[in-house]
């Protein structure tokens, strides 16, 4: 059964770079049927899609964050990563990684990690 | 960007009630929509994909309908474990966008 697990620092200082990794187990990140994505949720608020990546390295980013976001993939480790630069308190959130299925009869974000809380504070 | 307007933002209902939640897209998205349930402290869980297909393992009291710009999630008979927040998500075009959420509370 496919599982995703986020990892990274829970506390980041303002103006620094937030770095998270999602480890995929129970399946290959190199499958042609999936993209891999990041979503975040500020405390008490709704969900925001950050971006997605294919195993080849092709990416899509939310324009609202594009200037600060980099998503990368490491197929040898079955991981993908998120970097968000110049963070402020507004970037405090639970960050989720998820699988985006691009198979016709199952399109969408179908498997999610449990989420990791990142607080931006000095 | 495609805006997803979800309503109501919250509702109070009793066990056994029929509940309907609506999402309206700012432009047509075919049936490129999923519905998610989120409980406090947990990750969202997909209930419905392709607007009306039931995710494997999800109870049949959940159903989805719609296409184009109007979509609904219906819970035919609300159960205690269904009290949660529900979100729609469009994946027709980037950037993907979520509805604002509907919190279903106990009356």
Beta-strand fraction estimate of chain A: over 45%
Oligomeric state of the chains in view:
heterodimer
Structural class of chain B: mainly beta
Looking at the structure, what is the overall shape of chain B? globular
Q: Overview of this structure, please?
A:
The complex is a heterodimer of chains A (122) and B (107). Chain A has no helices and 11 strands. In chain A, the strands form 2 sheets. In chain A, strands 2, 4, 5, 6, 9, 10 and 11 form a 7-stranded mixed β-sheet that branches. A 4-stranded antiparallel β-sheet of chain A has the order 1-3-8-7, with no helix packed on it. Chain A has strands spanning 3-7, 11-12, 18-25, 34-41, 48-53, 59-61, 69-74, 79-84, 93-101, 108-112, 116-120. Chain B is mostly beta strands. Chain B contains no helices and 11 strands. Chain B has strands spanning 4-7, 10-13, 19-25, 33-38, 45-49, 53-54, 62-67, 70-75, 85-90, 97-98, 102-106. In chain B, the strands form 2 sheets. In chain B, strands 2, 4, 5, 6, 9, 10 and 11 form a 7-stranded mixed β-sheet that branches. In chain B, strand 5 (45-49) and strand 6 form a beta hairpin. The mean pLDDT of chain B is 97. Chains A and B meet through strand 5 and strand 10 of A and strand 5 and strand 10 of B.
Question: How is the topology of this model organized?
Answer:
The complex is a heterodimer of chains A (122) and B (107).
Chain A: E1 3-7, E2 11-12, E3 18-25, E4 34-41, E5 48-53, E6 59-61, E7 69-74, E8 79-84, E9 93-101, E10 108-112, E11 116-120
Parallel strand pairs in A: 2-11
Antiparallel strand pairs in A: 1-3, 3-8, 4-5, 4-9, 5-6, 7-8, 9-10, 9-11
Chain B: E1 4-7, E2 10-13, E3 19-25, E4 33-38, E5 45-49, E6 53-54, E7 62-67, E8 70-75, E9 85-90, E10 97-98, E11 102-106
Parallel strand pairs in B: 2-11
Antiparallel strand pairs in B: 1-3, 3-8, 4-5, 4-9, 5-6, 7-8, 9-10, 9-11
């Amino acid at each position: 059964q496919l599982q995703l697990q986020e990892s990274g620092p829970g506390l980041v200082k303002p103006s620094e770079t937030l770095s998270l990794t999602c480890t995929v187990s129970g399946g290959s990140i190199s499958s042609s049927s999936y993209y891999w994505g990041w979503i975040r949720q500020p405390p008490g608020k709704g969900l925001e899609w950050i971006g997605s990546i294919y195993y080849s390295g092709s990416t899509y980013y939310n324009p609202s964050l594009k200037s600060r976001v980099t998503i990368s993939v490491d197929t040898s480790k079955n991981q993908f990563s998120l970097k968000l630069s110049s963070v402020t308190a507004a970037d405090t959130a639970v960050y989720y990684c998820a699988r985006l299925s691009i198979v016709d009869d199952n399109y969408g974000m179908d498997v999610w990690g449990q989420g990791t809380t990142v607080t931006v504070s000095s | 960007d495609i805006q997803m307007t979800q309503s109501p933002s919250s509702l109070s209902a009793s066990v056994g009630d029929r509940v309907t939640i609506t999402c309206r897209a700012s432009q047509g998205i075919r049936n490129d929509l999923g519905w998610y349930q989120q409980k406090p402290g947990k990750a969202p869980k997909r209930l419905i994909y392709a607007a009306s297909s039931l995710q494997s393992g999800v109870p049949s009291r959940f159903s989805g309908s719609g296409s184009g710009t109007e979509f609904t999630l219906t819970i035919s008979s609300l159960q205690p474990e269904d009290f949660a927040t529900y979100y729609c998500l469009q994946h027709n075009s980037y950037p993907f966008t979520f509805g604002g959420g509907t919190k279903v509370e106990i009356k």
